[in-house]
Amino acid sequence: MIRAVDIIQKKRDGEELTSDEIKWLIDGYVAGTVPDYQMSAFAMAIYFKGMTTREISDLTMAMVATGEQIDLSAIAGIKVDKHSTGGVGDKVTLILVPLVASFGVPVAKMSGRGLGHTGGTLDKLESIKGYEIERSQESFIKQVQDIGLSVIGQSEQLVKADKLLYALRDVTATVDTIPLIASSVMSKKIAAGADAILLDVTVGEGAFMKNIADARLLAQTMVDLGKAVGRKTVAVITDMSQPLGTSIGNRLEILEALEILQGKGREDITEFICELAQIMLGLADVEKTVPEIREQLHNGAALAKFEEMVAAQGGDVNDLYRESAAAFIAEIRAEKDGYLAELPAMEFGLFAMRLGAGRAVKTDDLDFETGIVFEKKVGEAVKTGELLAKIYANEKISDELVTEFKKNVKISDEQKKVREIIEVIA
């Protein structure tokens, strides 16, 4: 007879669990026969003792089995999906999905909301008037059949164990452990039905993974999980020491995404997204050079796909290009000459959250109009009095708030080099 206390004790003592033990515990937790306090103890035992690759694989598939699995076989071609482990100013999905779809590769993507200092793709899309993130599985599949792409909210019926376990991890200090992160991400990606998956594993001050060694281990674990169940999987380790691109905040990030989709974005983030698109297209057996991919931004093909998706999901395409309606804008200017040395992602993510651009808890309302737009990024030369950033707020911006912002902007005499993609793991 299997008992929860024996499984907890076994893992606490660093022993390897059987497939049956893992499945029994996960099924029992979803059914309500294994209580929160025992699952909390199990999560903490994993935190300290870890899991073997086989255990993580069994945990992932046991979680997948607790909900429905989406069958995308009605959509022709190799279906590709992408997941980021989270960051600040991460609007990659908004650009990457239509860019890949503009080459005729179907993208059926379920995304999440933001919590804490990280932003969610769904929140950004909901800042577009009328955009519907809740769609039935049938309409989701039909849209991808018709126009080649859709981005919707995760089905409530998908991976029920993950919803319960994630909420528990959040309040028991067991979020940042690789077996539980990997099983959470990959259970959802596997259940969502794509044939191939690109994983963006962020590393640095604004990410869950603070160092390259941990990021590499997480990336390799998730790639191995994907391959073990027959999904073509590639991971990229990307820098999250500073915010991605120029904007933090929902409406502001939509505007930046539109700039990039029109071929007018910053060179660094444009090149980064084209490199990700090249990997995603390769997963679908479509070989393209970065210049060929970039051409889809300049010729309007990627932008047309984005507008087509917005319209298909009830969004007002005319509202897309509307500027932020924030009531107050404060300009931040450089106080000395030099090079921008630091823009700590975590600090600016939390700052934007205080402006209303992010949630402290899931029930918080968002202010879609607020946030930050940077005019300069790490490594760039600045002169005294030059514009560094703008703060967008709907409450008067106090001198104290400006001072707090400035203390996180570091200017140095030495130029720092930044790489967006640090490593690729296939």
In words, what does this structure look like?
The chain has 17 helices and 13 strands. By secondary structure, it is α/β, with parallel strands linked by helices. It folds into 3 domains: 4-50, Transferase, Pyrimidine Nucleoside Phosphorylase, Chain C (Transferase, Pyrimidine Nucleoside Phosphorylase, Chain A, domain 3); 80-319, Pyrimidine Nucleoside Phosphorylase, Chain A, domain 2 (3-Layer(aba) Sandwich); 328-412, Aldehyde Oxidoreductase, domain 3 (Alpha-Beta Complex), CATH 3.90.1170.30. The strands form 4 sheets. It has a 4-stranded mixed β-sheet with strand order 1-4-5-13, with helices on both faces. Strands 6-9-11-7 form a 4-stranded antiparallel β-sheet, with helices on both faces. The chain has a 3-stranded antiparallel β-sheet with strand order 10-8-12, with no helix packed on it. The longest helix has 17 residues, at 212-228. The two termini are 41 Å apart. The mean pLDDT is 94. It comes from Streptococcus himalayensis. One of its GO terms (cellular component) is cytosol.
